[in-house]
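ok trying again, last paste got cut off:
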Amino acid sequence: MSKTVTRRIALVGALFLSGSAPLWAADAVLTLTLKDHKFSPAEPTIPANTRVKVTIKNLDPTPAEFESHQFKAERLIPGGKEASLFIGPLKPGKYQFNDEYHEDVSKTYLIVK
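nice, full thing came through this time. structure:
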């Protein structure tokens, strides 16, 4: 392979790496807190057709399990810790989620507009 071809390949690679977003990047960010086994904000809203990074801060001393059967998400969050996951893109609608360990008090909805 000639030096010219090698330089062109290196240049294309450098341009690709510097101008592209990582495949795991989110288009939006949502932060939820969990206190007394209730999510805040109670019914968060995210944009439709968008990949969203969701960070859940568990302010309770006990573990929680963020879960949604409707948008297929599940994440264990130790007490006093936080965890992140990606959801979407989702169609407009209302999607239920909860802390599986305290479903009766934590059940709420994600609004997608």
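cool. Residues 3-19 form the longest helix (17 residues). The radius of gyration is 19 Å.
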